[in-house]
Amino acid sequence: MSPRHPSDDRAPNQVDVARLAGVSTQTVSRVMSGQQNVRPETARRVLAAVEELGYRVHAAAASLASGRTRILGVIVVSTDRYSTAALGVGIQQAAAEHRYTVTTAAVADHASADAFVEAFDRLERQGAEGIILGVPVELDSPAMRLRTARTPSTRNERLSMHPDAPLIIDQHAIARQAVEHLLDLGHKTVWHVPGDEYWLETRQRRETWEQVLTERGITPPPVIPGDWTPESGYRAGRTIAAIPEATAVFVSSDEMAFGLIRALHEAGRRVPEDISVVSVDDIALAGFASPALTTVRQPFEQMGRAAALRLIAQLEGVEISDAPEDVHPELIVRSSTAAPRG
Amino acid sequence: MSPRHPSDDRAPNQVDVARLAGVSTQTVSRVMSGQQNVRPETARRVLAAVEELGYRVHAAAASLASGRTRILGVIVVSTDRYSTAALGVGIQQAAAEHRYTVTTAAVADHASADAFVEAFDRLERQGAEGIILGVPVELDSPAMRLRTARTPSTRNERLSMHPDAPLIIDQHAIARQAVEHLLDLGHKTVWHVPGDEYWLETRQRRETWEQVLTERGITPPPVIPGDWTPESGYRAGRTIAAIPEATAVFVSSDEMAFGLIRALHEAGRRVPEDISVVSVDDIALAGFASPALTTVRQPFEQMGRAAALRLIAQLEGVEISDAPEDVHPELIVRSSTAAPRG
DNA sequence: GACGATGATGTTTGCGCTCTCATTCTGTCA
DNA sequence: TGACAGAATGAGAGCGCAAACATCATCGTC
Predict the structure, then answer these.
(1) Cβ pair B230:A284 closer than 8 A
(2) Domain A14-65: which CATH class?
(3) Which residues does the UniProt record annotate as the domain HTH lacI-type (chains A, B) (predicted)?
(4) CATH superfamily of domain region A69-168+300-316
(5) Is A143's Cβ below 8 Å from some Cβ in B?
(6) Which of A235, B34, B102, B254 is most buried, judged by most C-beta within 10 A?
(7) What is the reported pTM?
(8) With a 7 Å cutoff on the CB, does B160 touch strand C?
(9) CATH fold for the domain made of B171-297
């Protein structure tokens, strides 16, 4: 161990670097945070000392002193659904580009509203400067409003009274595209298998499904319950197979569509010849169902990215150059839909 | 605003609480960290003050003073694969139970080894006390060894020379179960579609596939390349469909199996009558493929949980009561495998 | 009823960094 | 050449908390 190194085994700090480089700690600080007004030669000396000592900035100390943490919090429900993972990828990417860190708080599926408040608290305590609510429910309790008022977060937008506040993604557009596609093919009506009642998206899509049918003078048939899982899709499929007049179904997720189609096949109903199916998500496997699924793609990764970028822009108080334009769902037509048999 | 409240709008701190409760800051600290040796009456007064002021512990300050962060870092590759999400759920759960926070660093898929080193650095700088490497590759560069030596992390185990160090999950057991299941059904040989070459798991499974065949005096057929995606499975399926003598395939993921089976069907080969297929993972949709997939389940959630608990135990220097027993893969027999036709 | 043992609380100090402000250095122009 | 703007650097304070240590109250014991 060279005599220039601190002899004890504690991690090197700014003082050690400053001493070795022959500058003040303030200069070390400036170099580490990439500020201007440091002579290249000085910066080089500092960086050499940093390298030699293996120094790294102590984030807790820095954020205590500066009041900034550059931490983004994410609240998600504990599910292994594809959507959660893909959202996370987008968030991580955007955060990393702007040198933010992401910390996640998971909440049990179907948890009470209190659980979200608690997760919010955990993230605030941890120092999160902004919080992304990748969350299935409307959070408009007084407790939640108190928190979203002091810590910027997504989904504020839904709670705020601005009717033109951009949504992360337009669930109504998703449902409309799906239902109209089926009606335009000539189906007399469209049955619906919604997702878990707990999710806001579920309600939004169901409302729009009803609305589109009503617009065309069709009385919506009863809803066939679902909960996102393939098993629930299978149960729904058995129900629908027993309804001879059903020729078109709007299912709220691809995973349910897999179960639904299997049940239809077992009951001897062909897809799309007897029954057309449109679902939502466009997961990687959607094209490999039998038949390949016609589905409305949700660009989860872009959504996560957009949410993070918007939040960061708010935190920095600036326009971000690569500001995300609105993210739109897209109908992908494959082989699970067709015109009804004449 | 009551006169007892600090008039400026800065967040309340320990001093404010101490003053309002009529105690010292140290007592506030003791109450907040749930220590013993505080009279119930005193604790109540403190908590009342905390409530009134909306005080919350400042994590950065606490960790600067205590030297502890209770942060667990996770390095993952940026994919939306099911496995990543499910692992995360298990990690989050275990961390929350022990009052740890999780922060994630994502690395681009197929990134260089340097990218993992950099992610490790980011997490260390952020204060992570332990790091879970949910990572596809062997990381045994000097730079990485330097880091894993000072910050506890999983997968050390694979790098360490202890041959009996418990693996997170035994990839050899996975491959062995799959291949032996097919051979025991009477197939003369087993073809293999591995995952992405980049992944350690891929190599481990292929090695075992070769080994099991060799043990039984069978010369392994050529490998049909794959990369985890359903598309690659589909391509592999077309290749295999053109091999008349092929009757059994071990595919390294369920998603590839979906693609593979579709390609076989399109080529007129029936599953399992003409060709048996075993895959790996047991994703939610595995039971809803046509035919339902025989697959080796990887208990991702338990794996994540086990990794986190083991790391926490190491950090706390204690045995954790609910220590995870080893996590084992399990063959789930469904309908994609059968004996070869006589 | 004096003594120590224990529990409850307070005081002081410093964690490692960035902020503000002061000082020194550099180059430029009259 | 001297003065001065502006860049580069340094000095000192303090962010909010917990550790270590000091002090005070309380209790049972003989």
Answers:
(1) yes
(2) mainly alpha
(3) 12-66
(4) Response regulator (3.40.50.2300)
(5) no
(6) B254
(7) 0.89
(8) no
(9) Rossmann fold (3.40.50)
